[in-house]
Amino acid sequence: MCNQPREALGVYQELLAENFAPNSTTYNALISAYGKLGQLDKVLEVYKDMVWKGLERSVITYSSLISACEKAGRWETALQLFDEMTRDGCSPNTVTYNSLITACGQGCQWEKAQAVFEQMPATGCTPDVVTYTSLISAYERGGQWHLALQAFQRMLAQGCRPDAIVYNAIIDALWQTGVVWAQATALELYHSAVKQGHFRAPRVNGPGDGSGTGSPTANSPAAFAPGGPGGPSGPGGPGAGAPLGGAGGGRGELNLHALTAGVAMISLYLWLCDLRDVVTARGDGALPAALAIVTDAGSNSKEQGNFIIKEAVSTMMAFWGAPFKPSQDRSYLGLLEASGPAVAQWVRTDAFSAQLASLFPASAAPPLGAADAAAVLAHEQAARGQCDEAFAAVARFEASHSLQLGSMAGAYLGQRTGLVSSMLEAGAALGLKDEVVHDGVLLLDRTLSSVQQAPAELLPLVAGAALRLSAVQGEGAAGAPPTAAVAAAAGLDATSLGVMEGNVARLLGGDATAISAMRCLKVYLERMGYRFLDRRGIYAVAGLPIMLAVEAAFDMSLLNCRPSAVAAAVLYAERRQRGAVPFWPTMLAKMTGYEDLVTPELAVAVHAAQKLCRKVLYTQIYKAQATGLAAGARGGGAVSGPAAQVAPVAVAAAQPQQQLLLATARQAAAVALQQAPLGHQWVPIAPAPASAPLQQFQALAPLQRQVSVAAVPACAPAPAPVAADDGPLLFESLALSLSSLGLGGGDLSAAALGAALQ
Predict the structure, then answer these.
(1) What family name appears in the similarity comment (predicted)?
(2) What integer pLDDT is reported at residue 505 of this predicted model?
(3) Three-class SS state of 293
(4) pTM given for the model
(5) Which residues, 6 or more positions from 546, have their beta carbon under 8 angstroms from its beta carbon?
(6) SS3 label, residue 336
(7) Residue 64 parent element (H or E)
(8) By CB distance 3.0 to 4.6 Å, which of 217, 264, 370, 579 could disulfide with 259?
């Protein structure tokens, strides 16, 4: 009755009615029965009774107790019982360790799971496939994919053969990071799983090779169920793809139901690649009459579907205008269908190649070698250390500086859109890095958040001063354009601008620090490894979020949100819009501490970012440019651009722009810590004070007097405000930001961006 806990409890009650005295074996069975029913309180009650009666507790007793804690999600209790077990002189076995590691992993305690694993050799216990599966899952939950990969390599070295469950765990852990080299490694492991028979490679059968619609191994739901006739049993294996029906009729089907996100996305990518290859090699007639992608089998399967995959695949196909459309077949909850001829025409287009790059940008990374885990981990160690340090600087800045929309004067808010436009245009004319210009916008907001009011006629000078101070902060005094050059680019008087610089600096207490959402976004993209891609891959990952970050600089609803939160929201929203899984990579969640995006501040930022994503203009530009890059790469295949120049273990040396980015963030944090008032927090979505301190208002007053006394020419009139709903599209600024990705200005010029709309 080991699998019938309720019946076991009934038998126990009958024994008690007959005055049967339970022994250790009886109690062990009782603990196991209550544990399987999820009644941990009853389990512990039985255990206490067992201790009180002085009955012997064996490894079976403690293994059952720890297993019950695992099922109840009580990792602390599991560890306490393990300690009691060792004090009782009871030696654990591999089953005990497996349950304990699983309990720690489910509680997101990867360090404790690792510590338990490392105790096993001392007790003579050998890890098995269940041990490694639990350990890898614990690392994945803790955002430690590099340790998960090391555990997998250790498993292979031990001679322990991974099964489909292990492959699912490690592939999903790597994929969910969103990191280029981790996802490339996931693809290599997928191929290994296929070779070992755990997964079936998605493929299309050509004329004479297919089995037609009547073949259970090709098209029926049974072919994709665990243990079905088409392949080995186990999660992920059969569902990872099956041969399509042969030419001349029938329906070919890819079933992604119940797969982990990593396995599902790789399966989809390889299936689409195979569609293209078959059409290229054999012609349009090689495809079945109809093709389908199952994302949720509904009542056809006992396993729950993956709702993220269901949304992502549907969104992706709609975003790129693919022929796969939602089906009216009500027997499935998630089904996309297309005709064979329509798919054959689609896979020949450059838009299809652009979609592949968007789905799996890691395919554009330089090959690291299937077994070269050391190179992968070297990439990861360098990027993790540098980006963690950079984000720590971001966090210190945000903890020591404040910005609130409600404290800004109405005159400034009325002109802000025009002022931001002029700063971006001037920055483009000066050739400043886009993150420096965006830092200047934040510095402008900081300045105007520090005073009660500011004369409207002086606001363009304040904007010019913020741009100049930001350039000095970001580029250094020697590298920043002189005041006269900034004045010329912004249409301001140089003398007036020089006076304004000094007054703004004094108003801010000499602290011109600013770390904008654009700079934070660049750190996120660096962490994901976008510089290791070729031109198509870089644009696929970074093109749309960079454009949206430019637009976000104008959105005043985001002024109450921290720059790091705005950058996170922009990246999440655009990835979700494209159907790029994961929507919010686990490595960024770990680095930022934004484990989910539902806190009030992040929810506001995400809502605003999703509104930006709905502006068709940016998606049009993104898709047009991505398609153009795909057309330019047609016929090549070799890795080119920044990716080709990166040495596996010399990441820092190959990325001078990243070094400058990180150094600037570190410098900004140092200034923030030295000069900003302690305890001055960035408070999101909070009411602004009734008025700014009088001394802050007076700090700006000399600014106006000095300009008047000097009798300098009046500054250029303020640009007319642009309607907030429309938002300006500044092709020059977009071109500057996109060129900062290292793609070169040729294809991403203002003229080219404008032409994308024709």
Answers:
(1) Belongs to the PPR family. P subfamily.
(2) 94
(3) strand
(4) 0.80
(5) 434, 518, 521, 737, 738, 740, 741
(6) strand
(7) helix 59-72
(8) 264
Q: Read off the pLDDT of each residue in 571-597 and give the average, rounded to a whole number.
A: 95
Instruction: Express the helix, strand and coil content of the chain in percent, nearest 5 each.
Output: 65, 5, 35
Q: What are phi and psi of 157, to 5 degrees?
A: -65, -30
Q: What is the mean pLDDT of residues 236-265?
A: 69
Q: Which fold has domain 5-126?
A: 1.25.40
* Tens-place pLDDT, residues 636-649: 443 333 333 322 22
Reply yes or no on whether the pLDDT at 736 is more than 80.
no
pLDDT of 604-630, one tens digit each? 999 999 999 998 888 998 999 899 888
Residue with the larger pLDDT of the pair 17 and 621: 621
* pLDDT band, residue 16 (cuts 50/70/90): low
Contacts of 14 (CB under 8 A, 6+ apart): none
| Rounded CA separation 496/702 (Å) | 13
Domain parsing of the chain, residue ranges: 5-126, 199-348, 402-512+693-721
Say how far apart CA 8 and CA 13 lie, in whole Å: 9
Beta bridge partners of 335: 294
pLDDT tens-digit readout, 59-82: 888 888 888 888 888 999 899 989
**Dihedral, 53, 54, 60, 61 alpha carbons, nearest 10:** 50
Distance CA 701, CA 712 (A): 17
The answer to whether the beta carbons of residues 116 and 101 sit under 8 Å apart is yes
